[in-house]
Design goal:
- The chain is of the alpha/beta class.
- The chain has a single domain (about 5-125), classed as Response regulator (Rossmann fold, 3-Layer(aba) Sandwich).
- It is built from five helices and seven strands.
- Strands 2-1-3-6-7 form a five-stranded parallel sheet, sandwiched between helices.
- Helix 1 packs across helix 5.
- The longest helix is centred in the last third of the chain and has 16 residues, at about 110-125.
- The relative contact order is 0.18.
């Protein structure tokens, strides 16, 4: 399994961003974590991320939906694993986030233990190879 090189958190809720950052630093202490609090700075922050970074995007930033940001981020950096997070996420929101290029869309946890479980899973998912390895002795199609 590969290790994610960095995590970018894009969230205008300072408490949620700090909680996610602190939990990530306990789960993966060698992984760089950056926080961006404004949608306008998201693309610039994304440019500075290494290949294969995990990007956590809040669904609403300053009252504006982040779906267009996800589209732009996915187009600019298809190597990044983009996950949309929200305090309230409908099945329609989740489907739309996936259609926009997010790898997943999930509700933000209400407890510290919930944040740890969620972020632990995301670190594992983002760290897994995007395509299964080809068994030795066979050729890729």
């Amino acid at each position: 399994m590969r290790i994610i090189p960095a995590v970018l958190i894009i969230d205008d809720d300072l408490d949620h961003a700090r909680i996610a950052s602190l939990v990530l630093r306990t789960l993966a202490p060698d992984v760089a974590v950056e926080i961006c609090h404004e949608a306008g700075g998201a693309m610039g922050a994304l440019e500075g991320q290494p290949r294969g970074a995990l990007i956590l995007v809040d669904r609403l930033i300053a009252g504006v939906e982040s779906f267009d940001t996800v589209v732009r981020m996915h187009a600019a950096r298809p190597d990044a694993t983009i996950v949309m997070l929200s305090a309230a996420l409908s099945s329609i929101d989740r489907a739309y986030a996936l259609a926009c290029g997010a790898r997943d869309a999930l509700e933000k946890p209400a407890s510290l233990a919930g944040w740890r479980d969620l972020l632990s899973t995301l670190v594992e998912v983002a760290g897994a190879p995007l395509t299964p390895p080809v068994p030795s002795g066979t050729r890729a199609a």
